[in-house]
Design brief:
By secondary structure, the chain is of the alpha+beta class. The protein is built from nine helices and 14 strands.
């Protein structure tokens, strides 16, 4: 049973900002799949909920003239999965592994990122794709925050009072880029990650990126170009990546996995992803 609260449905960006500045006791809702759970449990009891579904521009999913992928704050996971115009297989695979079909009809890509769970499945592929959060400031201006700089702690991000995210952009990448995504969970289809990992390899520009979730307070991002060596087999490169990554992560033990198990699965996913990307 929920308590009485105000629901505000802005239709312009200016109205969103005004609602955010009106008081501090509020929550933004896009899909609501996290927010409503926390409200029903009593963990969150906002006096005001600000719904974003009334802003048509937030439902944009397109490629702009510069070949940047534009994903508005209202775009659901299923829309991203089902739109085959977007080539990022790792991102599509990550979205497909989140919850159930019905939940994905409500849950949004941007909401999954803004919730800032260390285990958020869209975070690793978005990180390796150099995603940028498009943030509206309290004065109505827009700034870009690289996703690697957006997370500040478990379920915490860098947004300040009056700021909100209108969408996320993925810059253009060469056609030969490969991406991969791996996830370990307890139950198939509808469980949070015990470990997740995304990989990215650009053979044209000699770029190698990994990002790992559920193994630190925030998703971890690794630039690994210096470990690329065409004279070495993929297994050797994977071993070098593993040595670097395992020193940088700090997995905990909880109801989804032990810290030791997370370390082992991360090592396994590094091996698999490296061979997949470099083959």
């Amino acid at each position: 049973m929920l308590w009485p609260f105000d629901f505000v449905a802005p239709t312009t960006p200016q109205e969103v900002t005004a609602a955010l500045l009106a008081d501090d006791d509020h929550q933004i809702m896009a899909g609501g799949t996290d927010l409503l759970v926390h409200m029903r449990s009593g963990r969150l009891r906002p006096k005001r909920v600000i719904g974003l579904n009334g802003l048509e521009q937030l439902h944009e999913l397109k490629m702009d003239p510069q070949n940047r992928s534009i994903i508005g704050a209202g775009v659901t996971l299923n829309r991203l999965i089902e739109d085959k115009a977007y080539p990022w297989q790792a991102l599509r695979s990550a979205a497909l592994g989140i919850a159930t079909y019905q939940v994905r009809n409500r849950a949004t890509v941007v909401g999954n990122l803004c919730h800032a769970s260390p285990a958020a499945d869209t975070a690793p592929p978005m990180l390796v794709l150099d995603a940028v959060m498009k943030v509206i400031d309290r004065d109505g201006t827009e700034q870009s925050i690289a996703l690697k700089d957006f997370f500040s702690g478990p379920q915490e991000n860098v947004l300040k009072k009056g700021q909100w995210v209108r969408g996320v952009e993925i810059p253009p990448h060469p056609q030969g880029v490969k991406t991969s995504f791996y996830k370990k969970m307890r139950y198939r289809g509808h469980d949070c990650s015990g470990v997740n990992l995304a990989g990215y390899y650009d053979p044209e520009r000699k770029r190698l990126r990994f990002a790992i979730g559920a193994c630190a307070p925030i998703p971890k991002y690794f630039v690994l170009d210096h470990l690329l060596d065409q004279s070495k087999p993929a297994a050797t490169i994977a071993g070098n990546i593993e040595a670097l990554v395992l020193k940088a992560i700090t997995p905990i033990s909880d109801n989804r996995a032990t810290g030791a198990y997370r370390m082992d699965m991360t090592a396994l996913f590094i091996k698999r992803a490296t061979v997949e990307l470099l083959s």
